[in-house]
Amino acid sequence: MTAETEPFPRQHDLRSPEPIEARRVDAWWRAANYLAAGQIYLLDNPLLREPLRPEHVKSRLLGHWGTVPGITLTYAHLNRLIVQRGLRVMLVTGPGHGAAALNAAAWLEGTYSELYPDVAQDVDGLRALLRQFSFPGGVSSHASPEVPGSVHEGGELGYSLAHATGAALDDPDLLVACVIGDGEAETGPLAASWHAPAFLNPRTDGVVLPILHLNGYKIASPTVLSRLPRPELLTLLRSHGWQPIEVAGDDPEQVHQDYARALDEVVDLITEVRKTAPGSGQARWPLIVLRTPKGWTGPPEADGLPIEGHWRSHQVPLTSVRENPEHLGLLEDWLRSYRPEELFLDSGAPVEGVRSWSPRGEHRMSASPAAHGAAQRGLRLPDVRAHAVEVAEPGRGFGEATKALGEYLRETVELNSPQRNFLLFAPDEHSSNRLDAVFGATGRRWQLPVQDTDTDLAPDGRVFEVLSEHLCQGWLEGYLLTGRHGLMSSYEAFAHIVDSMVAQHAKWLHTASQIPWRRPVPSLNYLLTSHVWRQEHNGSSHQDPGFVDHVLNKRPEVVRTYFPPDANCLRSVADHCLRTAQLINVIVAGKQPALQYLSIERARAHCERGLGVWSWASSDLEGSTDVVLGCAGDVPTQEVLAAVEILLGLEPDLRVRVVNVVDLARLFSEGHHPHAISDSAFAAVFPPGVPVVFAYHGYPWLIHRMTYRRPGHDGWHVHGFHEHGTTTTPFDMCVRNDVDRYHLALAALEQVPRCADRLGHLREHLLERLTAHHDHVRETGQDLPEIREWYWGAGSSA
């Protein structure tokens, strides 16, 4: 039997765990619960070697207890499985603020002390572990990069199962267990994540084991799935392709026996699926439904109100411990109920029976190399010069930028298919976004039935398409955080659907970069296309370029944004982004036929600089500059070039400089972004005292925000999208937002003093052209021929 079909060898039959093993699991569970509760409450007296006093308790009690017992229970039983079966297991925990459980587990396994020597397995280290939790200068109450073994940011609910699925892709001997809180299960992203079996390949991917923990309540009310009638819940889960296995109860001894049997059944089912899975067709993977009381093993009640098994245990079950002697007594009784004297030596270390029950080395879930970025697979990339778009003269020929990128991505898929370390994700838009060349090398991942009329579906496809931006990003994040590479493409307007996800990922990357034991992971790469200026046919609902604004609000160390003006620049930027690590790269590029400006050699040089003067389009090569026309974005670039021809047709001796910006961060003032250029370099491109008319792809105030400290900013006049969108023609979209060639030319003329005498006549001429455009599009439904057919050198179209 190959590892591909049976990666989980059976070493012992533990369907009925021996009493000594059950006692060890229970002892480990009690130790983890004690440490988790202690993190919420204790400032000192970590082993209760003396009676608990108010000064031993933190003054500010922060944390979440309710989910902890289910997480620690699951951790203990997964450890049993790892020890007995020798499995590779990674754990993703969805309940947001369950870090106390994970910290406790990592400390018991020894990983925490290895990574943080000042939190050793002794009394002082134990005191430090408890004290630092939700404490100034310490660690947060949710799963964060500081938590060993975690790849899942616990600050926001909904993404655990998507992250677990992404982590399992292309790693066939990995079992990714995913604890899903029943509160989290009410979110939209998690509801969509149940579709994972339709995409997981039983032969080439790892196994995702969802553990739906139904403890009955979220922060202050019941949860939907916990109150759903049992037959309906099981039918719901089965309909998504899972085989539910139930574990339920409030008697620890019985739950331990049932959980052990359930996990053994899980491994048997996984082995059976691997043996019998056809080349295509959805496998029915096991899933555990775990029902235990919320805040299990905590105080049953306080002040005459129920705590254990109730929403009052969600956060801090006893809130007035320092002030209320009764609560202090209840806390001490609670902590002593775990019998810490049986679990910890006088030195503070766990007793041998607890310590020996943890896996060893990299088999510890808290020491997973995949979770720490140490299992990376290098990416092979093609030569960007291959299949480059030929550009004989700038701005004369047409091409499709994303179609050219599709050829590059096809070759990237081919180069990396043997090591299975590169995937593409999109919400059903690869063909729409002109990336369908990749289907020459692979198909769309699909495990469900295939019909004769279907195209490009494959059980092992390297392209993932699902109509959920949340799933695309969640799968990609899980894939990246475990060391592999990928790219997500999306319509520009709908990238906003994952605004919150990208914010969480940015925070994770920035924090992780400060942690020496975390290896850098491949960058999260977005391609935003079908953008605002070519969504005139879909109307205003599809017209929103603000994702870049959102991204640039994040830590500058981890975010980059690029606006390649043509196909060769797009290839160069994409090649650069795929080579980076620990970043979020956003590339904005159109998919429609457009003018091409730079050969591949000039494109690479231009993109490396990030911005530059296009001398071939400028008229200020001799003498001083009258006005600078800047641009960022493919459509604004075309309109700026057309405006230059209009200006030179009206004022032949006007000295105009054209500046194109690819890397938007170059505009930031020094010290505000790693890619910002110096003021002297900035002044060489944008001479102080010379007015700048800048056409930007998105909202104009972003450019003002980036440049307000630059020399000469008072002379900047930025044109961009002003939410004047509708269903209209491509050029009319530009006109409605003053980013068209006529408005840009007029803005430039208004800033040149020596044109003042003739400005009235020139303005009238340009306004007449705008009137002609207005009348033509409303009569014919298309732009004027001189607009549609314009190219660089064709004339002024004025």
Automatic annotation (TrEMBL):
Residues 21-374 form the Xylulose 5-phosphate/Fructose 6-phosphate phosphoketolase N-terminal domain. Residues 591-792 form the Xylulose 5-phosphate/Fructose 6-phosphate phosphoketolase C-terminal domain. Residues 355-377 are annotated as: Disordered. It comes from the Bacteria. InterPro entries: THDP-binding, Transketo_C/PFOR_II, Xul5P/Fru6P_PKetolase, Xul5P/Fru6P_PKetolase_C, Xul5P/Fru6P_PKetolase_CS, Xul5P/Fru6P_PKetolase_N, Xul5P/Fru6P_PKetolase_ThDP_BS. Pfam families: XFP, XFP_C, XFP_N. Its cofactor is thiamine diphosphate. Keywords: Lyase, Thiamine pyrophosphate. Belongs to the XFP family. This is Phosphoketolase.
